[in-house]
């Protein structure tokens, strides 16, 4: 296997972890604009806390190679829900970022699983 893949996987995972940790902070201390967006999407007032906890968990899990696939899968799930929410509500301006992060999360998941198999082989 290409020797650059483990480094690429680690860099992407750490960037993704930073994104989710920053996102958790932003969702825990939500702005009025995003509170209005959550309400417009049909979520209850407290739902941003659920998002914050899920993003915090994903960010923490992404930091260690042993738990990275779980963090990437959790992050991908959160971003798939965010992408779907924005698309269903025709909020296309907010759909691009979660779709990109979903793609990165799936890439990290694939790389982590492939690298884990190679370590065991």
Automatic annotation (TrEMBL):
The chain crosses the membrane at residues 46-63, 70-90, 96-116. The keyword S-adenosyl-L-methionine does not apply. The keyword Transmembrane helix applies. Keywords: Membrane, Transmembrane, Transmembrane helix. InterPro entries: DoxX (IPR032808). It comes from the Bacteria. It is a multi-pass membrane protein. One of its GO terms (cellular component) is membrane. It is found in: Membrane. Pfam families: DoxX_2. Its main location: membrane. This is DoxX family protein. It comes from Sphingopyxis fribergensis.
């Amino acid at each position: 296997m290409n020797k650059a893949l483990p480094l690429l996987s680690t860099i992407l995972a750490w960037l993704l972890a930073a994104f989710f940790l920053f996102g958790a902070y932003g969702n825990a201390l939500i702005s009025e604009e995003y509170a209005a967006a959550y309400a417009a999407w049909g979520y209850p007032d407290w739902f941003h806390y659920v998002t914050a906890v899920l993003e915090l968990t994903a960010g923490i899990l992404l930091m260690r190679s042993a738990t990275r696939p779980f963090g990437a899968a959790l992050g991908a799930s959160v971003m798939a829900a965010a992408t779907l929410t924005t698309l269903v509500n025709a909020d296309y301006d907010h759909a691009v970022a979660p779709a990109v992060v979903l793609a990165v999360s799936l890439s990290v998941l694939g790389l982590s699983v492939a690298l884990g198999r190679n370590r065991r082989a």
